[in-house]
Amino acid sequence: VAALSAVAFITKKDFSFLGPILTIGGFIALGVIVCSILFGFNLGTIFSGVMILFAAGSVLYSTSNILHQYRVDQHVAASLSLFASVALLFWYVLRLLMSLNRN
């Protein structure tokens, strides 16, 4: 998380182009999760790995939005957005480590 945020801070690049990519990826992930519930298959380590990449993109996008989009008086929304991205990344890293530990 620190490295991803450092990339956004150091480069000062606007990563807003990730927004539509993350939106489509989120809907695809949600569809896969719903199919997994309905049809009873396990998502596995590959899904966790893909979701770690998705969450890393989300952290980068959220940090970039904090720098370029949010106003100074929107600190609560900005911190909540970044926290949600960090929590998503943490959850899928935990899932990956737990699944690797089982094997």
Please explain how this structure is put together.
It contains 4 helices and no strands. The chain is mainly α. The protein starts with a helix and ends with a helix. 83% of the residues lie in helices and 0% in strands.
Write the layout of secondary structure elements.
Elements: H1 2-11, H2 18-39, H3 44-68, H4 75-102
**What would you report as the Rg, rounded to the nearest angstrom?**
15 Å
What is the beta-strand fraction?
under 5%
Task: Estimate percent helicity.
Answer: over 70%
Taking the alpha carbons of the first and last residues, their distance comes to 27 Å
Give the CA-based shape.
Answer: elongated
Total DSSP helices: 4
Q: Mind describing the biggest β-sheet?
A: none
- Residue stretches low in confidence (pLDDT < 50, at least 5 long) are none
Structural class: mainly alpha
Provide the succession of SSEs.
HHHH
Average pLDDT, rounded to a whole number, is: 92
Q: Please give the number of β-strands.
A: 0
